[in-house]
């Protein structure tokens, strides 16, 4: 069953706490489609693969924040206007010791030219991956396989995905596509296309 709040969620109502960049490219040597990720060197996702990103500074828009974070964590310089909003991940944590609602803006860009990767020491070690490798996806945060296929769905529609952490620590995921009139269409098979 879909959580009712996801179906009435409005992208314009809140500023996301975090921003993630989904940067893709075609490998200049092999021609294979790849995504830019990195190994987190610290924090709750230490030693896990994740996408570059982070918190926005004061008065910083998600596009500006993600362009800055990508430059800091990977050395790739992309102007903020090259990123488009793909969707948003809403996290609802119902555990009594830390009840929270948070959101992550997911922005995307295509890298048309080859650029060297320069990691951020002791924080993020960037690399290119083949997104069809299920083993790689399994070493990422557990919500990624649920929303990542929506970022590449044709025809593209913005999406919202929710991750709910229940009081007992169990997790559930829901997703919906944003329709043109700001209504949402639930997505049932969004994780089967990996």
Notable characteristics:
alpha+beta; 194 residues; Nucleoside Triphosphate Pyrophosphohydrolase; 34% strand; single chain; ten-stranded mixed beta sheet; globular; disordered C terminus
Notes on the protein architecture:
By secondary structure, this protein is of the alpha+beta class. The protein has a single domain, classed as Nucleoside Triphosphate Pyrophosphohydrolase (Alpha-Beta Complex). It contains 4 helices and 10 strands. It has helices at residues 4-7, 62-74, 134-138, 144-151; strands at 18-26, 33-40, 49-50, 53-54, 84-93, 100-110, 124-129, 159-165, 171-178, 184-186. It starts with a helix and ends in an 8-residue tail after the last strand. Residues 1-14 and 189-194 have low confidence and may be disordered.
């Amino acid at each position: 069953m879909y959580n009712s709040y996801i179906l009435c969620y409005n992208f314009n109502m809140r500023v996301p706490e975090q921003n993630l960049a989904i940067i893709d490219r075609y490998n200049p040597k092999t021609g294979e489609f790849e995504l830019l990720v990195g190994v987190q060197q610290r924090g709750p996702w230490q030693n896990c693969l994740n996408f570059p990103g982070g918190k926005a500074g004061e008065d910083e828009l998600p596009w500006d924040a993600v362009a800055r974070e990508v430059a800091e964590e990977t050395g790739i310089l992309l102007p903020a206007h090259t990123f488009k909003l793909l969707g948003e991940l809403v996290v609802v944590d119902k555990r009594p010791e830390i009840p929270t609602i948070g959101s992550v803006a997911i922005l995307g860009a295509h890298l048309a030219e080859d650029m060297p990767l320069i990691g951020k020491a002791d924080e993020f070690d960037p690399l290119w991956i083949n997104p069809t490798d299920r083993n790689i996806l399994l070493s990422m945060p557990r919500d990624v396989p649920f929303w990542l296929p929506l970022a590449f769905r044709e025809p593209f529609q913005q999406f919202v995905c929710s991750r709910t952490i229940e009081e007992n620590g169990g997790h559930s995921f829901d997703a919906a596509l944003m329709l043109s009139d700001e209504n949402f269409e639930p997505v049932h098979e969004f994780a089967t296309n990996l």
